[in-house]
């Protein structure tokens, strides 16, 4: 959907109410209340026009002098100049353009007056001075009252509408604007949220159940059914009327010999921990044995320290690690003489075979 540029008084009021509820960090949520505005436009509108700290009164001479001085040293740095002057960047830019146009028009009028001032005709000179005063006053009046530095042509879109005053609301609003206004009222009036809605619904259901129960009792009374002793379903234990978890003894005689025993002399003691119920676990047993072995090794190392040091040095010696052990080969099953005989016999066989070929 194409976003409209100009702002209306209704949209400004909806934006103010949305920011009072959602804050200045949820621009997407605030812009969802406005049909024709985006989150970026809402943020720019707040910081360029609706923020309470923005000064909208007429510029003083001190502010104009400060603006011209800073624009000379920091040209086109309006975001840096704005907090020093106490205005918004768009206000500084607009007023700077206004001052430049005012200065250029006054210079043109002054040049025209000086041109006719040096003439010998006194009548023409008096008319030139009167014309100069008239033009100067008219120029000041136009620049102060009805100045538009960005005068738009017909069909042209304002590039920065967020820094301009809102246009008045039409007498007959469109259907989408009426729907937007009604939805914004409904959403902004619900200040309690979903939790309050759920509680109100539960309260309403409880009231409906109570009325239904009352109607049922009345119908039973009209039908002649006595329900005066019916107390309904109890949700818990009435500690004033009964003893919870009471175990009544069976009627008759029973043996009381076990009651004479003291608490410490009971034949069976109930387990109170998980270890007593499940027994000792295998993991705990292995960990205990491993710990005992480590302690035993430490004690043995303390008793025989020199041999332990020599053994550790031997393990850490690089030469002993790099030195290759001697290869132990098995004893041969064939002697050297037999091996020599096999080799010569093979040579004779090969020579005999080649000669036959």
Topology:
Layout: H1 9-22, H2 27-31, H3 39-50, H4 61-73, H5 78-85, H6 89-117, H7 122-145, H8 175-189, H9 194-223, H10 274-278, H11 282-303, H12 305-316, H13 318-322, H14 336-356
Helix pairs in contact: 4-6, 5-6, 6-7
Q: What's this, in brief?
A:
With 357 residues, the chain is an all-alpha fold. The protein has helices at 9-22, 27-31, 39-50, 61-73, 78-85, 89-117, 122-145, 175-189, 194-223, 274-278, 282-303, 305-316, 318-322, 336-356.
Describe what this molecule looks like in 3D.
- Helix content is 60%, strand content 0%.
- The model has no long low-confidence stretch (mean pLDDT 77).
- It has 357 residues and is mainly α.
- The radius of gyration is 53 Å and the shape is flat.
Query: Largest beta sheet, briefly?
Result: none
**How many distinct helices?**
14
Number of DSSP strands? Answer: 0
- Radius of gyration, in Å, reads 53 Å
N/C terminus separation: 104 Å
Strand content: under 5%
Shape: flat
> What structural class do helix, strand and pairing data support?
mainly alpha
Helix content class: 55-70%
Q: Kindly report the average pLDDT value.
A: 77
Topology as H/E string? Answer: HHHHHHHHHHHHHH
State the low-pLDDT regions, or none.
none
